[in-house]
Structures are given as C-alpha cells and as structure tokens.
Write a structure and sequence with these properties.
With 445 residues, the protein is an alpha+beta fold. The protein folds into 4 domains: 48 residues, no CATH class; 89 residues, Orthogonal Bundle (Fumarase C, Chain B, domain 1); 251 residues, Fumarase C, Chain A, domain 2 (Up-down Bundle), CATH 1.20.200; 31 residues, no CATH class. The protein has 14 helices and 10 strands. Strands 1-2-3-4 form a 4-stranded antiparallel sheet. It has a two-stranded antiparallel sheet with strand order 5-6. The longest helix has 37 residues. The chain is elongated, with a radius of gyration of 31 Å. The N and C termini lie far apart (99 Å). It comes from Candidatus Gottesmanbacteria bacterium GW2011_GWA2_42_18.
C-alpha cells in the first residue's frame, strides 16, 4: 500500500499561477522513493496548493477526452453559474451550522462568492477548457482567494447534488417568469376580447364555415387555454421546487446536514426526501417541465394557425401591422407573416426536446450517470424558446386588428342553418325532422 505526498518546488510560489509540484511515493515500510513530477497544481492565496480538478490525484486526463466530456457542457454550465453560486452560498451557511466553518471563514467565503456573482452578472467570469465544470471553477476560485476555507467548501456535497440544485433553481426562476408572462398575455387577450365581444365572426369546422360566433369569444378561447397551461406549469413547478442539497452523490451523507434550513435559505418550498430519488428524478423532472411548456406551445400554435388563416388574402378578417411582416426576394407585393409561421413551429421543437430528455433518462439503473449532462441543452432550449415565443405572442396580440367589413360580409345564410333547425324544434318537430327539412332547403341553393 502506498500514499502520495506532494512537495512544492524550492522557488517562490505565486498565487493563481499554475506551477509544477513534485510527489514522492511513500511505501508501506516507510521508505520514500525519488520525487518525480506527477501533476500540476495551482497556488492559493495563502501559499498552499490545490488541484484544478476536484477528483485529481496522481494522473491527468487526456486532453482530447477532456474536450469531448466537457467542451459543450461548459457552455451549458455558464447558464447555470449564478444558480450554482446561490446553492454554494446556502451550502456555506450549512457548513457553518455544522461547525465546519467559523464565523470569520463564513464571512470570507460569502464575500468571495458575492464578488464572483457580480463578475458573472457583468459577464466577466467565463468557464473555459480545463475548468471541467462550474462546480470545479467555483471551488478553484474560492481556494485561490482563500486557501483552506475554499478547500472546505466541498465538505458534505457532491457535484451530483450541486447540479441538481442549480438546475432546479434555474427551472424555478424561469417557470415563474413564464407564468408571469402568460398571465400578462391573458390580460391583454381578455381586454381585446371584451372590446370585440359583439363583433360577428364566422366559426369554422374542417376549415369550412360552420356557425356564427364573435371575434371576442374567439380571443377569450385562448385566454382559457392559457389558464389550463398555467395549471400544468404550476404542477411542474411544485414537483421541481425541492432542494437537493445534502443528498450527496445520491446515497446521503455520514454527517448531520441541515437540509431543511438550506432549502429554506435558498428559497425552495421543500426538500427531496429520498437521497437516491434526487438522482433518479434527473430527466423525469425536466420532462415534466418541458411537457407543461409543450401544452403552452400548443396554445400559441393554435392561435397563430388561426391568425395565419384569418389574416390571409382570401379571408382578410384580421389586419396585422406591416412592421411585423417580411417581404419576398422575388415577389414585390408579398407581406409574409413569418413571425406567426415560426411560432407555429415551436411546439414541434419542444416535442423533440421532450423526446430527447426522456430518451436520455430511460433504461438507466438507479443513481447518477454522466448521460444526465446531455439533458441540459434540450431543457434550456425549451425554456428559452418559450420565453421568446411569449414575447412574440404579445407583440402579435397588440398589433392585430379585426376588419369589421370583411367579418360582416362573411355572415352568410348557411351559418344559421343549425339555428333554423332549432327554431323548428321549438315548434314541436323532432331534431332529425328539422335537420332533414333544413338540409333539403340548402340542397336547392
């Protein structure tokens, strides 16, 4: 059995600089071999040294393998950095409650994390190749600035519960923002719906004129659809609004971790009770979120599909401000509502993301798997596309105008055929008798 001891070089160490340190292998019998260069360290502010990778001992990862494992994921982690910093602050306070940190150390760590948060918000802190992930970069930053206090930060945590916590915080913040935007869209739609509550509009089935309706009622139908979408998103929020802090790699910790206090400090409503489920919920919870966004995208899809149909040159029921249209490279007269066509496509993009997430999470045994990092991209894309789509939806609603003359011209007799049949029902005819009588009348036209 051997152990490895590191010896710093004789020249002066410079904080923040990558420098070579030498290791000597100490044998079981106590003899020490010749020191050899075994790996590279970074020097902390207090003169001690630390490893750039959290797991690193006496080997370095092949550079091509490292690029394959981390290059794309670092871009995803950049979006999660502020949430991982929030989780790390709550974790530092937990370490204080556990007696790992003293008051002075806690203050130093929180000050350092707050400073780093400002840099992230200002776009001045970027993850780069060699950082491996956001967790490693944050710990390396703390250790470089604070030395031993930074090295303590990973006590009672794993990158597994870190990323789960950061992801859930990201979902929580963005779902709440999406719900807020949906409610703003509902208010705007309801205002327009009330304004045009008595304006005639033909109803359609099978893309053919069917029965009379109103422009206002057509608008209100989307407001009610949004209400159902909000219910689904709130359900998804309830499922994901739980803290993973203190679950470790997925099998708990041999320490008394103040899980409820940490959850409350970071703004979660509850904790994930079972440590293993924290990892088993990866992919499942994200799929629940994206599923709720697909419902919302379906509402938007239906709205813009109607809008494209009703604003077509053939019908002309709705007029759209030309500033929202695009032209053609060959046909000078064209004004295309590309914004609506692109919005129509988003439900298919989100559905593909849902399939991607569930496919990545399926057929894996319990516990953490590196496959999970691939879930970030379709999750982030779904949320970002939804937020952008809602903004475009609001722009469309604000800039659509019903064309009263065209709508009134569309009020043709056949739209009232069912109403005529019911007039006969009121006079004592059976509905089927009334139906045949009115149908015969329209066959003669």
């Amino acid at each position: 059995m051997t152990s490895v001891k590191a010896y710093p070089p004789s020249h002066k160490a410079t904080a923040g600089k990558k420098q070579k340190f030498y290791c000597a292998v100490e044998n079981k019998g106590g003899t020490t071999g010749t020191p050899v260069l075994c790996y590279k360290y970074f020097v902390a502010g207090d003169g001690s040294f630390y490893m750039k990778k959290l797991w690193q001992t006496n080997w370095e990862l092949d550079k091509k393998v490292e690029a394959f494992e981390t290059k794309e994921d670092l871009a995803m982690d950049q979006k999660l950095l502020k949430y991982d910093l929030l989780g790390t602050k709550a974790h530092a306070k937990s370490l204080f409650l556990m007696g790992i940190y003293g008051k002075k150390e806690l203050r130093q760590v929180l000050d350092c994390l707050n400073s780093l948060t400002i840099l992230v918000e200002q776009g001045k802190f970027h993850l780069k190749m060699g950082d491996e992930d956001m967790h490693t970069a944050i710990e390396a930053h703390l250790t470089e600035k604070l030395g031993l206090a930074g090295e303590k930060i990973h006590t009672a945590r794993s990158r597994n519960d870190q990323v789960a916590t950061a992801t859930r915080l990201y979902i929580k913040e963005n779902l709440e923002e999406i719900i807020k935007k949906v409610k703003a869209a509902m208010r705007l739609i309801d205002q327009s719906g009330d304004k045009y509550s008595k304006l005639f509009m033909p109803g359609f089935t099978h893309t053919r004129k069917a029965m009379p309706y109103t422009f206002g009622a057509w608008l209100h139908s989307f407001s009610e659809s949004f209400q159902d979408d909000v219910i689904q998103m709130k359900a998804a929020l309830k499922i994901t609004d739980k803290s993973a802090l203190g679950t470790g790699a997925g099998y708990g910790l041999p320490l008394d971790y103040p899980r409820s206090a940490a959850a409350s400090d970071i703004g979660f409503s509850a904790i994930i009770e079972n440590a293993l489920y924290c990892q088993n919920s990866r992919g499942k919870s994200e799929a629940v979120v994206v599923s709720s966004l697909i419902s919302l995208a379906l509402t938007i899809n239906k709205f813009v599909s109607d809008l494209l149909f009703f604003s077509s040159d053939t019908l002309g029921f709705i007029e759209i401000d030309k500033s929202l249209t695009s032209g053609s490279s060959i046909m000078p007269h064209k004004k295309n509502l590309d914004i609506a066509e692109l919005l129509r496509s988003k439900v298919h993009r989100l559905t593909a993301n849902y399939i991607n997430i569930t496919g990545l999470a399926a057929n894996l045994m319990s516990g953490y798997h590196r496959d999970f990092q691939e879930i970030k991209r379709p999750l982030f894309d779904s949320i970002e596309q939804t937020l952008e789509s809602l903004e475009m939806m609001l722009i469309l609603v604000k800039n659509l105008k019903p064309v009263k003359e065209k709508l009134e011209q569309a009020d043709t007799p056949e739209l009232h055929a069912a109403e005529e049949a019911y007039k006969l029902v009121k006079k004592g005819h059976s509905f089927r008798q009334a139906y045949r009588r009115i149908a015969a009348r329209y066959r003669q036209r």
